[in-house]
């Protein structure tokens, strides 16, 4: 684990790349809803402020139909550096001890300690190697498991479909990142409108209108 200053810089870098993270809702026991865009994984690259080398984040965010942040997973790499990191983010309000766990398909669960919490998310970082990345490429699902305030497990499942293409591909430039953010915003707006219409229809059924 990096020292606190380095860790904060890493998490800030992830947060800066991500589409704005709103305040997370308190999670209930069980499996959180997985609302992913059509292309769930994206590779975003920019200059690392510390070294000046190219820093790339292969990232997936899951959000509710309302656009509210649920969780994210990121593989962080720096050009020329063999070290890689898996950085996960979950909503605040989780038990900080004993941390969270990550699992690829039905494989072994790996414990990860929280490093820092912001008002909108809590981050945990795990140093990974090429073997871990290979398992992600061959896998179907990545699951993040944490404990809510009642010490009950909450699962955040993420599809690994598209991970290999994103990880091995060229990172998006600024224009492509902005276009993706616009597409995500439009998709989330459509989902929010659909959810609103369903709520209206349900209320009308209940009132007999």
Task: Provide an overview of this structure.
This protein has about 210 residues and is an alpha+beta fold. The chain has one domain (about 5-205): Sandwich (Immunoglobulin-like). The protein is built from 4 helices and 11 strands, in the order H-E-E-E-E-E-E-E-E-E-H-E-E-H-H. The strands form 2 sheets. It has a 6-stranded antiparallel sheet with strand order 2-3-4-5-9-8. A hairpin with a 4-residue loop joins strand 8 and strand 9. The chain is globular and about 65 Å long. The model is unreliable at about 15-30 and about 35 (pLDDT under 50).
Quick summary:
The chain has one domain (4-207): Invasion associated locus B (IalB) protein (Immunoglobulin-like, Sandwich). Helix content is 30%, strand content 33%. It has 4 helices and 11 strands.
Secondary-structure blueprint:
Blueprint lengths: L3 H14 L12 E2 L10 E6 L6 E10 L5 E10 L5 E7 L9 E5 L5 E3 L1 E4 L4 E7 L1 H9 L2 E7 L5 E7 L3 H6 L5 H34 L2
| Strand residue percentage | 25-35%
Q: What global shape is seen?
A: globular
Count of beta strands: 11
Order of helices and strands: HEEEEEEEEEHEEHH
**CATH homologous superfamily heading:** Invasion associated locus B (IalB) protein
CATH architecture label name: Sandwich
The stretches of 5 or more residues where confidence is low (pLDDT under 50) are: 16-29, 33-37
CATH secondary-structure class: Mainly Beta
Helix coverage percent: 25-40%
Mean pLDDT over all positions: 79
Q: Count the helices. How many?
A: 4
Q: Which structural class should the secondary elements be placed in? A: alpha+beta
Q: How many domains in all?
A: 1
CATH fold group: Immunoglobulin-like
Major sheet strand order: 2-3-4-5-9-8
Q: Report the major sheet.
A: 6 strands, antiparallel
Using only C-alpha atoms, the radius of gyration works out to 18 Å
Question: End-to-end distance, in Å?
Answer: 59 Å
